[in-house]
Amino acid sequence: MIIFENVRIIELAPETVSAPVDVAVDGNRIAAIGQGLSAKYPGATRESPAAYVSAGLVCSHNHFYSALARGLMVDIKPSKDFGQQLAHLWWRLDRALDEQITRYSGLSGAADAVMSGVTSVIDHHASPEFVDGSLGVLKEAFEAVGLRGILCYETTDRNGKPGAKAGIRENVRFAKAVDAERTAAKSGGETPLVEAAIGAHAGFTLDQDTVDALGGAVRDSGRGLHTHAAEDRFDASDSRHRFGADLAVRFDRAGCLGPKSIVAHGLYLSKEEMELLNERDSFLAHNARSNMNNFVGYNTLLPKYRNSVLGTDGIGSDMLQEAAFAFFKHRDAGGPLWPPSILAMLDRGNRILDRYFSADGMKFGRVESGCAADLVFWDYDPPTPLLDGNLGGHVMFGMTSRSVHTVMINGKFVVRNREPQFDSRQIFDKSREQTRRLWKRMEERK
Questions:
Q1: What are the tens digits of pLDDT across the range 206-223?
Q2: Closest Cα partner for 198 from 210, 211, 214, 212?
Q3: Which domain holds residue 383?
Q4: How do strand 2-11 and strand 52-55 relate by DSSP bridges?
């Protein structure tokens, strides 16, 4: 048992700040909250890491396959629209990924995440020239760093029917592997740190037979669909033109939408589609910085979604920065939401974890007895009081990931006293080597 002494608990939704207390962790759960816990548990290890503690942050939509795109030195044609940007840049990049580049994309992405106070990443992977086994390689990267996650493969018809079938096969294979790991845990093994979803690219790259097959995989696996939808106007109009139905309706008819499903972006989903996602209790992942970077517009229906969450769409994993951008862009667009609503979106990523890890009896997102010991300790010393009701003002206008002091995931330290508990130097050295290979392979795929 470990007792963290004299820390103040901060919760995102609602915004609260406790008086100094002790937090006891036993195994992978929080065992007790209170004062003077060292006397109650005299054999426990005692720690005093930082002034504040919160539940770990969740990135609800990411692409670790783009983790090595930072500072990209590749000749990219100018793009007139979002479709050309995909073809000229991102689809060249994902085709250039092989096993080693995928491995170090995952390792460097995971390292970046935990150093930013993110304890869980829901990732959406694509590597068309390395499909079979790709999610297993990513899982190994998550586990090497100690990051919790939910993984899927981005099924698409843009690389032909064999590629689409391979994508579905990899999703199903990985989900079965996680099920087998969970079964083994009942006989004394560790419960899975990484779960599985069923992944798909945007609807405009999916034929109906592939969408139907994805629906079958969702039903058979007991997971949810994780897909892009209506990131650009073309995706929405293409669905109506080719299939005579809105995107969300098309996915729903195939059985793809449910309480474990995540729809990323959704800028051009209609009011009726928003209501359908709410009815199905699905999640809408908002990615403010990515939308701004791709100049695709703004989701004016964002305040209407019941289960809106925050992701980065591959632009790192710094969720405090993402929350700040989400707030400022929303204000710039004339929206009605204030900081507490943005923090609630960030907190709501924990509901996805609740639904995927419920078989393990895990609860997330609170510093309470019985919850998962996914914790972040913040060395934050503001010049103004941090009180009940004003955490959002601190996050939007001052608190950053630089305040991360210590990170614990599943009861194990992954960052301690600002020092990673994994070989970050080796990860980043090897990642730079693999990045140069990535550049070369992208140039070969013009």
A1: 999 999 999 999 999 999
A2: 214
A3: 2-56+373-424
A4: parallel
